[in-house]
Structure prediction request, 433 residues.
Amino acid sequence: MNEHDSERMRGLLRKVGYTLTPDEAEADFILINTCSIREKAEQKAFSHLGRLKLRKAKKPGLRIGVCGCIAQREGERIISRAPHVDLVFGTKNIHRLPQLIEKMIKTKRRVIEIYDDRERWQQFGCEIERDNPIRAWVTIMQGCNNYCTYCVVPYVRGSEWSRPAQEILAEIKDLAANGYKEVTLLGHNVNSYGRGLDQEINFPALLRAIDQIEGIERIRFTTSHPKDFSEELVEAIADCPKVCEHIHLPFQSGSDKILKSMNRNYTAAEYIDKVNMLRAKIPQAGITSDVIVGFPAEEEEDFQQTLRLIEEVQFEGLFTFLYSRRPQTAAGNFAQQVPNSIKQKRFEILLEIQNRISSERNESLVGTQQEVLIEEGKALDVDGTSGREYLLRGRTRLNKIVEFTGPPDQIGKLRQVKITKANRFNLEGIMLP
Ligand code: SF4
Prediction:
């Protein structure tokens, strides 16, 4: 979500005359888009701000802005930690960036603007400068009403809010007209899409409508909450040929005690039931997930239950996080915080198990034929014939990266590739005629 916000802000900055520079020393304006999901990300943002203080001392005309989740949460308090900051704005003020910059320059004063109500969200439809010419992110909803006890999203992104379907469909039709082949629908809990809209629509119905858009070849979505992952959604995934059968379904813990304490509203058995329901209908489905290690009061037995769930489900890949206390969240005040040394040890054990499973899952694809959307290529110098052969790179429907050789005119196309080799994080193959 943050990366897509950055694309949006880049587009807005370009519109008001800024050009992007990869060289921080050359920049007249530096905008830090912050994330506060993990403590580490927050520490990194503040240490970057610390370094910028020195840069600004050497270049007084330099202006520094802070936006994103930390800005939304901290507002003016950012200034007490970093008085050299000129602009602070929240997650719901992105569309106001041109006006905020104008005000900052005209008044030569610091500008702080944090909206906290969703009525003022008009950020969709503004210019977006996308990172990738083939795959695009499309926000369908934002915010969350679930209040998992470790998560800052409801505090920094607000309550759940769905974007009208006609706006989403118009954006995707426009992307198709501009040559985009794949869209990833973004939301903090896409499964609850449609709640609160005047129009009667839910996420499966939205998927079915997007599947009809000509030119778009693939549809992905993230993130799904297991409690809202329904049979109706699985039916839609199975029925819509463009919807990839790769599901990111965070489980967070395999212990019912911890899941309850996290306020996740499902048990480990219910999670596994959802996985089985998906695989019964779509046997080739691939599942990735998020897991938190070292949540308060996690004991060895809870951790073992997490490992058992991982072995049972056989995820394609896992995003593994060490629990860190976040401001405003309930779990930040829980007793029985797990010592870092134990968290780290558990993290390493879990990673080793998942790395083995990921390698095995990839190995099982050797010899199979996979549909790959080719995204990029790099010229190979084969016997001095540089430019004819390319190392092409793309993704399977299960979102696995595949590399193979072929001509550059295949970039942006869907091709069948025979998998010849599996590595832990990618596959190698031969493009079929
Ligand atoms: S469902 Fe996801 S976004 Fe919402 S509170 Fe829980 S972890 Fe955060």
